[in-house]
Amino acid sequence: MENLKLNRLEFGNPSNKGNVLPMEEAMGLLTDWVKNERLIVHMRQVGHLMRAFAEHKGYTPEVQYRWFLAGLLHDADWDQWPEKHCKKIIEELESRNVCPEIIRAIASHGPKYFGVEPQTEMDKMLYAFDELSGLIHAYSLMRPEGYEGMEVKGVKKRLKDKSFAAQVSREDIADACQRAAIPLDDLIQFVISHQGSALD
Ligand SMILES: [Fe+2]
Ligand SMILES: [Fe+2]
């Protein structure tokens, strides 16, 4: 893979704290940039998980929406500019004066690739949900009942089977889970419980 290192550790302008893109604008950016339907599904699912987690923590609706946006937009540049993945969306959100916390979370969603360590809770949860969400979604697609009745142990079996959703990095999942300091089983259960309704 090309070098995707961002080579910087500061993102956005502190004076933009709290600024968000309204829903229509965020969805407009997605549909302009992303033609791959599966990638749109992935980003909507991660956005939904992020919002659900912030809600579960009792954060305000404003904070929940910031978490949602980080998830919704984290891979927006992957479809058309894979060689500029992360850099392009970061610059776009900076030019649109988006809250630095959101931009930072996106910048740290792959520490190995972008060279930015997840620091805040939002950073860590985006990293943790990203790969896990994809694997669990792939699992739901092969089950006739989808998410219905899905169990943690079924997901863990797929996690051990390296040929299942082979592109999903097991190493990243383990690393993210450790950084988030949440037991893997709890994280899996959270995704199972919330992801099924992500696209309703
Ligand atoms: Fe990504
Ligand atoms: Fe992703």
CATH class: Mainly Alpha
**Overall mean confidence score, pLDDT:** 96
Q: Residue share in helices? A: 55-70%
- Secondary structure tally: strands: 0
Task: Tell me the number of helical segments per DSSP (H or I, 4 or more residues long).
Answer: 10
Helix-strand pattern: HHHHHHHHHH
**What is the CATH architecture annotation?**
Orthogonal Bundle
Which residues sit in consecutive blocks of at least 5 with pLDDT less than 50? none
Biggest sheet layout: none
Counting helices, strands and paired strands, the structural category is mainly alpha
Question: Overview of this structure, please?
Answer:
The chain is an all-alpha fold and 200 residues long. The protein has one domain (16-195): Hypothetical protein af1432 (Orthogonal Bundle). The chain has 10 helices and no strands. It has helices spanning 23-33, 37-56, 61-73, 87-95, 100-107, 111-114, 121-142, 152-160, 170-180, 184-195. The model has no long low-confidence stretch (mean pLDDT 96). It binds fe (ii) ion (2 copies). The site of one fe (ii) ion has 6 residues, from loops.
In short:
By secondary structure, the chain is mainly α.
What attributes characterize this protein structure?
200 residues, Hypothetical protein af1432, globular, binds fe (ii) ion
